[in-house]
Amino acid sequence: xxxxxxxxxxxxxxxxxxxxxxxxxxxxxxxxxxxxxxxxxxxxxxxxxxxxxxxxxxxxxxxxxxxxxxxxxxxxxxxxxxxxxxxxxxxxxxxxxxxxxxxxxxxxxxxxxxxxxxxxxxxxxxxxxxxxxxxxxxxxxxxxxxxxxxxxxxxxxxxxxxxxxxxxxxxxxxxxxxxxxxxxxxxxxxxxxxxxxxxxxxxxxxxxxxxxxxxxxxxxxxxxxxxxxxxxxxxxxxxxxxxxxxxxxxxxxxxxxxxxxxxxxxxxxxxx
Length: 272
What we know:
Keywords: Signal
Pfam family, one: DUF3108
Signal peptide: 1-24
Protein name: DUF3108 domain-containing protein
InterPro entries: DUF3108
Radius of gyration: 18 Å
Shape: globular
Number of strands: 15
Strand order of the largest sheet: 8-7-6-5-4-3-2-1-15-14-13-12-11-10-9
Order of helices and strands: HHEEEHEEEEEEHEEEEEE
Largest sheet: 15 strands, mixed
Helix content: 10-25%
């Protein structure tokens, strides 16, 4: 474990080598969110039935990474009460991105159903290439330490969510697909972001929101349809606030519903 923490520290301190070489390819003019954005959710867990029991919180904050100004986005989820007896869930997922949304790091600490997974990724950029070093321990045992190279912008489960918030949906038709490189564990695959049109969603703050409906699939070249990673409903406005998120578990699934928000950059599109 000492070795793991040592390597994790190195990942977080890696210099931003050659970041300018990929800035034109991967950088995004972020007009949708800002530091201080805080979203609170109610958590539901679904097995044979759907049980409300727990909370989730998604935050964006300013940090310094390798001496550069950056964003850190963190999603904390925890089951509570009866739902926790059914399924223990205590997850913290986080990513670090430049101010123009180039991924720099990913961190996962997940307690799920009796298993504990600790994962760290670090991104370096040089000579038009993106190298992602991914390290995983599970239940205290080392699983892998892999470095994956791509010549295209590459994302993880957290950074791809924020990337999806920046896409131009104004001219998209239903079932429009955006494909990006994606690292899951030590697998180098694609993430397919499918735009499924618009829908009104009633949140747990009592309001209905005009939303854009997205489905995110992990797609290996060997499979046509891939594996669904997440359904996301984001506000149809300049914030693209996630109102509802659905994810798969080993058995069952989770859903979070927006309960409150603050720190949004623009007015929110609340439905009539």
